[in-house]
Amino acid sequence: MVSSTEYGSHTWELLLTVDHQYEGVEKEFKLQVTGDLHVGGLMLKLVEEIKLAQDWSDYAFWWEQKKCWLLKTHWTLDKCGVQADAKLIFTTQHKMLRLRLPNMKTVRLKVSFSSMVFRAVSDICKMLNIRRSEELSLLKQSEGTLKKKKKKDKNSKEPATEDILNLCNSPASSGLPANPGLYSKTMTPIYDPVSGSPASSTITWFSDGSSSEQNCSILALSHPACSPETLAEMYQPRSLADKAKLNAGWLDSSRSLMEQGVLEEDQLLLRFKYYTFFDLNPKYDAVRINQIYEQARWAILLEEIDCTEEEMLIFAALQAQYHVSKLSLSSETQDSICESEVDEVEAALSNLEVTLEGGSKSNILEDITDIPKLADNLKLVRPKKLALKAIKTYWFVFRDTSISYFKNKESAQGEPIEKLNLKGCEVVPDVNVAAKKFGIKLLIPVADGMNEVYLRCDNEDQYARWMAACVLASKGRTMADSSYQPEVQKILSFLQMKNWTMCSQAASEPENVDMKPECFVSPRYTKKFKSKQLTARILEAHQNVSQMSLVEAKLRFIQAWQSLPEFGLSYYIVRFKGSKKDDVLGVSYNRLIRIDMATGDPITTWRFSNMKQWNVNWEIRQVAIEFDQNVSIAFTCLSADCKIIHEYIGGYIFLSTRSKDHNETLDEELFHKLTGGQE
């Protein structure tokens, strides 16, 4: 016979805390439970004990010590590992979160703290009407990037409270499923008369009509007037090590916000993490295009990406054009936008989209025809000791993905002096339109590092054709690829914007526009030029972009940003296996680059297209990657968790599998397989 006291020993006491806002109502409850009680039964038992009539459907148990949610309600306490010492908090899964958008505006909205970050970002993007949520993620600002602000705050009064756009009443923020028709390709676009761009269906996601238009304008319109003082207070990276700090705080997409220490009302940054902007369409992507433009604009202003003085003035001119056009448009009443203007913008988009290797399989017939070639006289520049350069003209022939050069045209039938295979090389533009300098710097991988070769072209057309061929060859593509001609046109378009000094007719300064040139360039150039000089130079550059619409100015800005050599590179400080010093690893959409930390020079490049497999040794936190031709590398990450780099690589591989299907569904399971790892 078993006594009642012995039988009672199978039950044990569990302390539960209820997270509610009712005053005078108990928050802690002690329940007698058994190990075979399932989580759902425990929830039911607790709710009966609380005796409060309310909707508990969004509540779940958070295990404080283990930092995990108990979401599988059919699991027993024994299976979950819950024992008497466990501290379980019964709390809501959806909580308020503050997000700093790329345009530096803060929104406050209700987000799932129990879903994986990948799913949470998808829900956030539906609320904000941003398609292709897989390109974005959430970033915690690292302590290093906040130090400058804290020092400034000590010597100044607390600034006025920032305006926060409250979106907590949106349907998706309350945990409701998003409207499946939001991204429908057959949806009729609604054009915003102020911006000259379609406003999509953003307005339908806000509560009342009057505030809806204001909210939409904050998300879909740019507000470029930023004072130099504000800019000076923001974190500006001065070195590669500083740039590495910017990428240290990416959240793990395979874990929830709560599991990563994010609390209710915390502030995170919503940013485009992956620089592959797929299927941009101005009819539906007014908010998305504006946020990409804003992320690019702030990257330029804060010098997170390097550009030349000539390029900085182009970016300033495009910002000024946006500013001028918006002022002129707002002074008029426009009820609709011309369809032809949208067609022009869509044509510009064909040059804009960045496609990964294997991402596009159109025009197969074009790839099996005779591959075209280039043949021309170019100058070869070889760096020599004592800072001298040997410049000599040769006959160059570009065929497939290789460049061969000969003494002259007549000797082209024989053996070349040298044949350069450009597959996997780095292509860096070296252009100064005003000085008639059109150079191409090639960093070609060899056994012991990178071999530098400089090519000098005679004019813009020649440069555009050869530069486009080099860019494609570096990705393993030939000039038969359908992207060759658009690449040539993109380069020519960018050169044309730089070519303001060739114009004899100077642009007249708009009298009705109060231009503050310091708002359009980085602090380095504000110090270099006086305000009047800067205004004059920006207006000079403005000549070639003065006829652009608002949307076209944004798209051209994004296109120019994509043309910069450092575009799309995220930096991390790493230690390669067998090395005695730290290096910088640049992660891009199609390659990894090992960079010398002291000089900033590329040492080696590895293409994702040549990658066979990658994995992580979680015990020693080491990433190991195998490439073709028995090439393998291994490194540990010093500036961030190695999981971040692992997720970056897997994420870019995942994005290369996307296609333009109508329902735009994502294979979430595949994403987690490629990025999650096995810890």
How many β-strand stretches? 26
CATH architecture of the domain at 372-479: Roll
CATH topology of the domain at 372-479: PH-domain like
Shape: globular
Q: Strands, helices and their partners?
A:
Blueprint: H1 4-8, E1 12-18, E2 28-33, H2 39-50, E3 59-63, E4 68-70, H3 77-80, E5 88-92, E6 94-100, E7 106-112, H4 117-128, E8 136-139, H5 143-154, E9 164-166, E10 191-192, E11 197-198, H6 209-220, H7 228-233, H8 240-246, E12 267-272, H9 286-301, H10 309-330, H11 339-349, H12 364-368, E13 374-383, E14 389-399, E15 402-406, E16 418-421, E17 426-432, E18 437-446, E19 449-457, H13 460-474, H14 484-498, H15 523-528, H16 531-542, H17 550-562, E20 570-576, E21 583-587, E22 591-595, E23 602-607, E24 611-617, E25 622-627, E26 631-637, H18 642-655, H19 668-675
Parallel strand pairs: 1-5, 6-12, 7-9
Antiparallel strand pairs: 1-2, 3-4, 3-5, 6-7, 8-12, 10-11, 13-14, 13-19, 14-15, 15-16, 17-18, 18-19, 20-21, 20-26, 21-22, 22-23, 24-25, 25-26
Helix pairs in contact: 9-17, 10-16, 10-17, 11-17, 13-14, 18-19
